[in-house]
Write a structure and sequence with these properties.
This protein starts with 8 loop residues before the first strand and ends with a helix. The protein has 8 helices and 8 strands. α4 links the parallel β4 and β5. It is an alpha/beta fold and 231 residues long. The chain has one domain: Aldolase class I (TIM Barrel), CATH 3.20.20.70. The protein binds D-xylitol-5-phosphate and zinc ion. Zinc ion (ZN) binds next to β2.
C-alpha cells in the first residue's frame, strides 16, 4: 500500500466532555478529524446520553464533522435520521439489527458514511465478506457504555483479520477502535491495523487536548507506517 494510504484519523469522544459547556469543549478539539458522538439509550447499554437534538445543535455551532456512534437498540428506526441531520458517518451495532447491509445502504442513500460496530464478544466472521457494504468498521476495545475503561488487547486479532481483508480487496473502509485509547494503546491498535481512533478520557483528561490529539496522531502514524513497511 502507498504511503498516502496510511493516513490516520483521530476522533475525540464528547462522552468525556463537560455536557454543560459543550460548545467550548468542541472548540478545544478543533484540530481533530471529527468529533465522536456516543448516543446511548439506557437499553442497548446501561447508560444514557443524548440524541438527535444534540447532533443538530453541534452541527449548528461547530464546523467539525460528526462521527455518530449509536449504542441503541432500535437502529432500524433511528439511524437514518442522524444521517439526515448531516452526520459524516453513522455507526450502528451489528448486534442491534437483523439486516446490517440494508441499513448501511439506507445510510449511504441518506448521504452518510455507513459504519458497523462490533462488541467485544461479537466475532468478525459474519462480516468479513460484506466489508464493501460499509465505510467504517468499529471494533470495540471495551464493553460499550462508559468512558475510562481499560483497553482490551485481546481484540487485536479482530483488527488483523479486518485489515487483511480491507487491504486484500483494496477497500476504502476506516478501521476504527473505541475504548481505552491513549498514547500506549494507540500504538498497539495501529500496529494491528486500525487507522481510526476514538479517544475520550485521554483527550479530554489532558491539560491541552490539542497537543494530546497531535501526540496520538503522531504515534498512530508511525505505527501504521512501520506495520506497512514490514508487511
Ligand atoms: C464507550 C464509548 C466510547 C468512550 C470511549 O462505550 O463508545 O466512545 O467515549 O472513552 P475512553 O476513550 O475514555 O475509553
Ligand atoms: Zn463510542
Amino acid at each position: 500500500m502507498s504511503d498516502e494510504g496510511r493516513s490516520v484519523r483521530i476522533h475525540p469522544s464528547i462522552l468525556s466532555a463537560d455536557f454543560v459547556n459543550m460548545q467550548a469543549d468542541l472548540a478545544r478539539i478543533s484540530s481533530a478529524d471529527a468529533v465522536h458522538v456516543d448516543v446511548m439509550d439506557n437499553h442497548f447499554v446501561p447508560n444514557l446520553t443524548f440524541g438527535p437534538e444534540m447532533v443538530r445543535r453541534i452541527r449548528a455551532v461547530s464546523a467539525i464533522p460528526l462521527d455518530v456512534h449509536l449504542m441503541i437498540t432500535d437502529v432500524d428506526r433511528w439511524a437514518v435520521g442522524y444521517a439526515e441531520l448531516g452526520a459524516q458517518s453513522v455507526t450502528f451495532h451489528a448486534e442491534a439489527t437483523d439486516d446490517p447491509v440494508d441499513l448501511a445502504r439506507r445510510l449511504r442513500h441518506a448521504g452518510a458514511r455507513a459504519g458497523i460496530a462490533l462488541k467485544p464478544d461479537t466475532p468478525v466472521s459474519a462480516y468479513v465478506d460484506q466489508l464493501a457494504e460499509f465505510d467504517l468498521v468499529l471494533v470495540m476495545t471495551v464493553e460499550p457504555g462508559f468512558g475510562g475503561q481499560d483497553f482490551r488487547d485481546d481484540m487485536m486479532p479482530k483488527l488483523r483479520t479486518l485489515r487483511e481483508q480491507i487491504d486484500a480487496e483494496d477497500l476504502d473502509v476506516l478501521l476504527q477502535v473505541d475504548g481505552g485509547i491513549g498514547e500506549q494503546t494507540i500504538r498497539i491498535a495501529a500496529t494491528a491495523g486500525a487507522d481510526g481512533f476514538v479517544a475520550g478520557s485521554s483527550v479530554y483528561g489532558a491539560a491541552d487536548p490539542g497537543s494530546a490529539i497531535a501526540s496520538l496522531r503522531e504515534v498512530a502514524r508511525a505505527a501504521r507506517n512501520a506495520a506497512g513497511s514490514s508487511g
